[in-house]
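Entry
Fold in token form

___
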Amino acid sequence: MSHPAFSAATTAEEVASVFADRIQGKNVLITGTSINGIGFEAARVLAKYANLVVITGYNSERLKLSQDAIKKDFPTANIRPLTLDLRSLTSVREAAAEVSAYHEPLHVLIHNAYAATAEHQLTEDKLESQMAVGQIGPFLLTKLLALKLLAAATGSYIPRVVYVSSMGHALGAGIDLNTVEKGDPEKYAMMGRHCEVKSANILSAIELSKRSKGKINGYSLHPGAVVTNIVQKEDTKEALQEFGLLGPDGLPSTKIEWKTIPQAAATIVAAAFTPELDAKPGAYLVDCVVASNKSAPHSSDPETAAKLWTVTEGIIGEEFDFE
């Protein structure tokens, strides 16, 4: 279900080159595009070929740095910055309204942004922060941009929503539907919540594909273990050490096979543009290839996916339809 040459060592640039004709003319929005992150690298390589790449972030200064860096590599690239703070449903609505006013349709929406928090935190909307950024905000954004995505559909093209999940989802027990909104401050553990959020991503891709009835396809993926800004944050070091990602010295564990940022971003590009995936809606990818058999049962259960969808609709106070 993918290019035969793709592997764990494949880079995002290599994937984009293979699918250059398919990327050409497409409009893509990707969240979480700070420099030194996999979202930035995916945006950078797509910008070489795409008609439009919308990059997002809550910090306008860092967003400008990302825009300038991409333009330095590809001066003719059409990069459009969008201020978006997924911790705030108001910000999500404002950003979605801005995108809805674009004259271009939206071919691919990539949910890459993530914010790990060492301590239990509630947002201004009284939502647990990790779940707000990783699941609830993206759910609302997808709902509000559904018409933009549908506008990109043709007889030969199905719009896509891509969720950057993690193999870490399998290390947890799945998502607790009773604590999606606020979490459990008494039992909160950063990496435990991480596993729940990443499970939610996989379930969302499955349910989105099912409910759209072929109008929009959702995909999720494991990018690989990679040293990004999240791994380097001082306040999350202890939790990452407990999870085995960092050693006692605070450096990346030698027991883990790490990817470079270009390698980790490759599966994002593959999920967004591999044409054969049209026949596999809801698929989970690892190393640029379909690996749905590696998704834990608790994160691929259709009943749980349907319940999570309903719970999330209740949290945002709106039903999600595709009309």
Observations:
- The radius of gyration is 18 Å.
